[in-house]
Amino acid sequence: GAGVSQTPSNKVTEKGKYVELRCDPISGHTALYWYRQSLGQGPEFLIYFQGTGAADDSGLPNDRFFAVRPEGSVSTLKIQRTERGDSAVYLCASSQSRGLTEAFFGQGTRLTVV
Amino acid sequence: SQQGEEDPQALSIQEGENATMNCSYKTSINNLQWYRQNSGRGLVHLILIRSNEREKHSGRLRVTLDTSKKSSSLLITASRAADTASYFCATDANQAGTALIFGKGTTLSVSS
Questions:
Q1: Chain-chain contact of A42 with B102 (C-beta, under 8 angstroms)
Q2: Which residues from chain A sit within 8 angstroms of residue B44, using beta carbons?
Q3: CB of A37 within 8 A of CB of A45?
Q4: Of A33, A54, B1, B60, which sits with the fewest C-beta atoms within 10 Å of its C-beta?
């Protein structure tokens, strides 16, 4: 596609439920990032993929959060047993490679846990 | 964790004035980037400056980088109401496998 696509754009879920957020990066981009952003804050790093592997998952807050990128393109962020504190905008970005290139962002998924 | 810290947190100016935002970071880097965000959704890349560069221009944007002080500044000249947005710096720390880390941002408000 022309840009990074994230689905759904909005998700409301009940506390304790499981959610999946999807990211379709720009074709050919090997690097893919997940961030979450709370109101008035900067994007908080969650996980970074280089190809199919998670090169850095140090930002995942706890073991309820997991992300995959099985074929090196589409990625899914999975959150188990959601909590109200998980409510945020989840942003995905991709770039041609790590390092000296810009990252292209999707419009994000606004997750609300009620 | 957040690598960069922008300063000021908020800035209000009149159209036509210049806006300067600063960013400090903690570790050595490969490059530093500035992004803009409207309405709390997707970020848009503005400019990238490499660690061996000291200054870069793009239209009304001027970015400086001082690696000895671990700081960068973004100058927007002749600001317009449409420049109203949040601005973030992001760094790619100089270690293999590390990600692009953002600061907390500066919220710029330009009034006409």
A1: yes
A2: 105
A3: no
A4: B1
What is the tens place of the pLDDT at every residue in A37-86? 998 889 999 999 989 988 889 899 999 999 999 999 999 999 999 999 99
Give the position of tokens 């990600």.
B99
What is d(CA B106, CA B9) in angstroms, rounded to the nearest whole number? Answer: 5
* Chain-centroid distance, C-alpha A31: 12
Per-residue pLDDT tens for B85-111?
999 999 886 565 567 888 889 999 999
Question: With an 8 Å Cβ cutoff, are A44 and B97 in contact?
Answer: no
In this prediction, residue B80 carries a pLDDT of 97
Which of A55, A91, A106 has its CB closest to that of B97? Answer: A55
User: Interior CA angle at A48 toward A44 and A50, to 5°?
Assistant: 160
Interatomic CA distance for residues A96 and A91, integer angstroms: 17
Q: Do B42 and A107 touch (CB under 8 A)?
A: yes
Q: Across the interface, do B99 and A55 touch by the CB < 8 Å criterion?
A: yes
The DSSP symbol for B38 reads S
To the nearest whole Å, the CA of A40 is away from the closest chain B CA by 8
d(CA A99, CA A25): 17
> How high is the mean pLDDT of chain B?
90
- Of residues B79 and A50, more confidently modeled: B79
Chain B residue numbers with beta carbons less than 8 Å from the beta carbon of A102 are: 33, 45, 48
